[in-house]
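Quick review question:
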């Protein structure tokens, strides 16, 4: 049987000595705190600074000859699980909003971690017109990474935005937006947010 190398024996002896000499409190495992949760929306150009690589969206497969085109209704975000949903036969309810809410600043503002710099010009034009009409608009979401957006979502390419106008009835804002020629897909969520994207003009 081959004897263990002296260096290995010294290491084992040192580990044994430390285990017996250190108090029990010093031997307990210490868990390091997790880093703060990263916002869903990435500021354009900042992904490299946090060490995250966001791949380009996967190319959608071409439909077979004669097959119907895939429904656009499933390519964008549905309501989050905590948002209330209507049951069959339930009448439409007014989305949540505070009529007494005042905007923090006039014009276009964004939630922390959200940027409008990546939005294409048509969506910026829409924001400008809504801001001019109602005095302010608050953007809550634009670019989303793949793990926060469905496959094919316009948010993956920063071609969609969710927003609200503080203190204004959401349906009033949506009615105004739908009259704009730049508006493509649009939806009013039950938490009062409005979604608009660059896709085909459609509600869902």
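Suggested answer, residue by residue:
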């Amino acid at each position: 049987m081959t004897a263990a190398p002296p260096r290995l024996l010294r290491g084992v002896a040192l580990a044994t000595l430390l285990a017996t000499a250190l108090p029990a409190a010093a031997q307990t495992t210490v868990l390091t705190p997790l880093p703060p949760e990263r916002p869903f929306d990435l500021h354009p150009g900042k992904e490299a600074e946090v060490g995250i690589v966001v791949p380009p969206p996967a190319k959608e497969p071409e439909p077979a000859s004669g097959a119907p085109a895939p429904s656009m209704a499933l390519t964008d975000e549905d309501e989050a699980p905590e948002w209330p949903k209507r049951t069959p036969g339930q009448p439409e309810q007014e989305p949540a909003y505070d009529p007494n809410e005042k905007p923090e600043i006039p014009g276009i503002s964004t939630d922390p971690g959200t940027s409008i710099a990546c939005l294409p010009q048509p969506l910026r034009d829409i924001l400008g017109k809504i801001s001019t009409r109602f005095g302010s608009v608050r953007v809550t979401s634009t670019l989303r990474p793949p793990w926060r957006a469905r496959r094919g979502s316009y948010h993956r390419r920063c071609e969609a935005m969710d927003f609200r106008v503080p203190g204004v009835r959401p349906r009033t804002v949506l009615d105004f937006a739908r009259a704009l020629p730049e508006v493509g897909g649009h939806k009013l969520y039950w938490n009062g947010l409005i979604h608009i994207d660059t896709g085909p003009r459609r509600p869902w």
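Why it works: The chain has a mean pLDDT of 74. Strands lie at 107-110, 136-141, 160-164, 185-188, 194-197, 202-203.
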